Sequence to fold (460 residues):
Amino acid sequence: MDNTIRKRSKRSSHLRIFLLFGCLFTAILILFISMAGRKEFTVPHKLGLELIGPFQTAISKVSNYAGSVWGKYTALLNVREENEQLRQELLQYKAANIEYREAVATNVRLQKLLELKESLPPPTLSAEIVGKDPSIWFRTFTINRGSSDGVQKGMPVVTVEGVVGQVLTSSPNYSKVLLATDPNSAIEVITQNTRVQGIVKGQGPEAFALHYVLKSAEVEKGDYVMTSGLGGVFPKGLMVGTISEITKTRRGMFQNIEIKPAVDFSQLEYLIIIMKKYSLTED
Amino acid sequence: MFIAIFLILGILILVLQTTFLQLLPVWLGKPDILFLLIVHISCQSEIFRGALVVLLLGLLMDVFSGVFLGLYPVIYLLVFAFIKGISRRVAINEFAYQVPLALISYLFVSIGTFLFSYSLAPDTPPQWLWGAIVLQLLMLAVIGGPVVVLFDAITNFYRRTSASGRLPGTRSVNRFK
Fold:
């Protein structure tokens, strides 16, 4: 009897479970069928979205950041290569630009030298400085023209700006030029405005002194000093410099006159040797 | 071999001084490296070979510098004799003494050049340029150390490669015994 009752109750519980699952399944089925074909989110959709959305946002941010960093890194690698390439190109252009500027500058210098050469009594010879005196006591240059080119001792050496010096000694292919700034150099000169004559001697690295000008003679600061042609070495009318300082001491017969050279001796590259000792006024 | 090495070295320095070093700005001065070589040769070499090299370098210097021929050989030989004279009494051959010795010698050379030039051309006396001399002394003091190290290295190289093992005529390590 008891067994029969137990069996019945067991069946009834199984039936309830089946009914429950059946109802649930039916409800879900109804839900899916009701959702099919709709475009708007339903509550479960929204719920799922709200739950997953924050995680999605966080992961997305992290991945975006990582992607951005990676992108920048790869871009940096490319930029580095590009930068290197551009630097190389810039260097090439700079070198080309320097060559171009140098060529233009050389062209201008040589053109001026040519103009001067044409204005001087022929024959003249252009020369390039190949070495400078290393001593602090003397001022000489070595040039790439020698006795095989007809260069002889005493020949005047000039440039576009004015007098440079004279040939001291020469070998077959090279010569030594004594600069006008050397104390051993002496050039007969005349002032352009007041026509006062004197002798210019080297005084220090970049200065001349005008000697033997009497105190009674009128000289002006800023007056140009030219070669007088009297010494027989330099032709007349070559620019020597400008009077920069005049002092008259109580003692002595002469004035102390300083001259600023017309030539910048530190910038010299090309020179002209006047082969004949003619005056510019002759011929 | 010794003469050839130091003559070639001297020529290289001379070429450097007359060309590349001339590009240095005026305010910086132009170091007289050849003079350091002269001092080094005077300190380290045997008397006859050293004197010959110094004489030849002086003659070469005459070609590229100055107005009076013979000035540099005389001046350099006087420096050589001065240093040799001192080295007989004082241990100046050591590296540490060479730079101060070069500075003192340079001052004497400046005085000598001035006096010689003045006596050779009294009408056109040279200017005594304190600024340039002090600048040159400073330059020599600054570059002296490394340059002397280089010269020492060359001398040691020569000594190692030469058959005798050391420069002929140079003293032994214990010079005070």
In short: The first strand of chain A starts at residue 124 and ends at 132.
